[in-house]
Design goal:
This protein is an all-alpha fold. Helices cover 51% and strands 0% of the residues. The chain has one domain. The longest helix is centred in the last third of the chain and has 33 residues. The radius of gyration is 21 Å and the shape is elongated. The termini are far apart.
């Protein structure tokens, strides 16, 4: 008896939204929005990337403020 089953996690993956050549890029495209059907790991990656980007921006602003204060002294 042959049984055919499909992996529903793979079927709902976000791979279908990416272009075909994205596998050959040095840095793969990361979705920066949370979409229906994403796994908890994909959602946590999106949230982590947004938090990291925010922290980098804050560090950059603080660095620029510190450097401008050094120049004035």
């Amino acid at each position: 008896m042959n049984i055919l089953s499909s992996n529903s996690d793979f079927a709902t993956s976000s791979f279908s939204d990416k272009d075909v050549l994205s596998a050959f890029k040095q840095e793969p495209e990361k979705s920066m929005t949370i979409q229906k059907g994403m796994s908890p790991n994909e959602i946590s990656d999106v949230v982590s990337e947004k938090v990291i980007a925010l922290v980098r921006k804050q560090f950059q602003l603080t660095k620029e403020q510190f450097q401008s204060k050094e120049i004035k002294q």
